[in-house]
Amino acid sequence: MLRRKIFNLALKSIRSMRTDGTVASSTQLMTKKFENDPQKAEHHPLTDTFGRHHTYLRISLTERCNLRCQYCMPEDGVKLTAKPHLLTTEEVIYLSELFVKVGVNKIRLTGGEPTVRKDLVNIIGALKQIPGLQEVTMTTNGLVLTRMLVALQRAGLDIINISLDTLKPSRYETMTRRRGWERVMAGIDLAVQLGYSPVKVNCVVMRGFNDDEICDFVELTKDRNLDIRFIEYMPFTGNKWNDKKMVPFDEMLKIIKSSYPHICALPNGPNDTSKAYHVPGFKGQVGFITSMSNHFCGTCNRLRITADGNLKVCLFGNSEISLRDAIRQRCSEDDLLAMIGAAVKRKKKQHAGMMNLSQMENRPMILIGG
């Protein structure tokens, strides 16, 4: 209880440093103006020059992780940001409130591994109190879910994505450079038991490593309401990407059809990143995230904030602005929104393509947020 009071006082203090009632009300009036006048939508801070309106914010809570996955972290590790330069709990909540005020309705917590952050339950609880925020979701490696998921659900976690790239314990250890496959499987089972429906499972497919398990993952959806999401292998600094390792969507679907010829496509929402499919008679479904072979840039509604407080308007872009520095320099909400709006307006029509991406300097995935 004392910790909660201290947290509330700190959050109240950080809000008061940057805004008073006049600024807050001007932000709210501005948001209402854009909602009521579609012709002014192009000037909205979350609408880019191609008319894409961004309603989905991904926040990396930490750069630390208890695994060392090959496609995420370089073999020799990464230099982590010193704790004073990471966003505090109060700054995470403040930025979340600001983005929700101007139209974000979904927030995903990522890392690193978000469950290594000790204030995770408090952050989720605080996010659920933000008026207008419809969903709080999280991507996790699942290692500690059997200890934490009940508390996370009570705090208000709406949707969970669990990363799992193999159904073979020995391969898991090779991929992650750690043990723990059984704990992840137990975490998936617990999520199903607690009523998460569906439980989303993210699987990065790599040729010569786990592409022979694609149909085994599909089989998991037979008796359980799982959404297996096959992700094309993407290039990031230090993950030794090459195009020969990438298994494109068309090839994955062909493999599945060889065992499940009646698999059929499902309708997709306008901002869905996953192409959804279902095997008739199965409880769950599968999907394909085709960032490399068939990008979905034209309908992208996502923004990212890194653990050190930088706004990235594109996962594959290397342009960033520091919201952390602006907050700590006591910028007003209007100034912050102007910065955010300018960054969003610089968002490109699409990413550069897989060969160009493989040569571009970008953060390792662990420093961006999955």
TrEMBL record:
Xref: InterPro entries: Aldolase_TIM, Elp3/MiaA/NifB-like_rSAM, MoaA, MoaA-like, MoaA_NifB_PqqE_Fe-S-bd_CS, MoaA_twitch, MoCo_biosynth_MoaA/MoaC, rSAM
Cofactor dependence: [4Fe-4S] cluster
Subunit field text: Isoform MOCS1A and isoform MOCS1B probably form a heterooligomer.
SMART domains: Elp3 (SM00729)
Organism listed in the record: Gryllus longicercus
Lineage, broadest ranks: Eukaryota, Metazoa, Ecdysozoa, Arthropoda, Hexapoda
Pfam families given in the database record: Mob_synth_C, Radical_SAM
Catalytically driven reaction(s): GTP + AH2 + S-adenosyl-L-methionine = (8S)-3',8-cyclo-7,8-dihydroguanosine 5'-triphosphate + 5'-deoxyadenosine + L-methionine + A + H(+); (8S)-3',8-cyclo-7,8-dihydroguanosine 5'-triphosphate = cyclic pyranopterin phosphate + diphosphate
Name of the protein in question: Molybdenum cofactor biosynthesis protein 1
EC numbers: 4.1.99.22, 4.6.1.17
Enzyme category, top tier: lyase
Biological pathway: Cofactor biosynthesis; molybdopterin biosynthesis
A GO molecular function held by the record: 4 iron, 4 sulfur cluster binding
Family membership: In the N-terminal section; belongs to the radical SAM superfamily. MoaA family.
